[in-house]
User: What shape does this take?
Amino acid sequence: MPSQENAASFAVRPQSEGHLKAVDALLDKAFGPGRFAKASYRLREGVAPVDSLSFVAEYTGAPKEQLAGSIRYWPVQTGPNADGATTDALLLGPLAVAPDLQGKGVGLALMEKSLDAAQAQGHRLVLLVGDLPYYQRAGFSQVPSGQVTLPQPYNPERLLWRALAPGAEEGVAGAMHRPE
Ligand SMILES: CC(C)(COP(=O)(O)OP(=O)(O)OC[C@H]1O[C@@H](n2cnc3c(N)ncnc32)[C@H](O)[C@@H]1OP(=O)(O)O)[C@@H](O)C(=O)NCCC(=O)NCCS
Assistant: This one.
């Protein structure tokens, strides 16, 4: 997959083995040690991320090259809905940008690249827990309250989704859970 050079001196690239240590350090810095207690982490436990949708942003400018950001996705399912149907979806996150490189478009570039890739790979629906004012810039909107639920306490106003195929959110309801 080609990398995407950006005017702000960072490049979005597929994540490789060699990035993992720096990604972990970045997530610790961005979210702190409490990150594993978040509602969305329960859905990731024991499940591998979608490798083909893990991207990093690398800052290519002076004084040194550094990891600028990271985005990953996990497979999830929602349901059953009233008709007994479950839906495969992606859980976006964690998304993190190095504190000294925030506000330069890194987060949005990581989302744009990875959501394009997800769509190209045939994924139809993406959910996340996050701030609507930020994620609506990438096309996310609030899931109607209570329509989809999480296994841990969460703020329903922060449960967001974006369809990658027309009508992909129609009929989606029930508990979000790890894939069966
Ligand atoms: C949230 C985060 C990923 C944004 O990445 P970023 O590269 O700094 O964001 P971008 O440069 O793409 O976008 C910056 C714009 O988004 C806005 N923005 C950033 N975080 C926001 C938030 N939580 N709510 C609303 N707006 C937000 C900025 O004010 C800025 O607005 P402007 O363009 O009008 O100046 C980054 O700040 C981060 O890693 N934060 C700590 C971890 C975190 O909270 N991750 C998200 C989990 S829900």
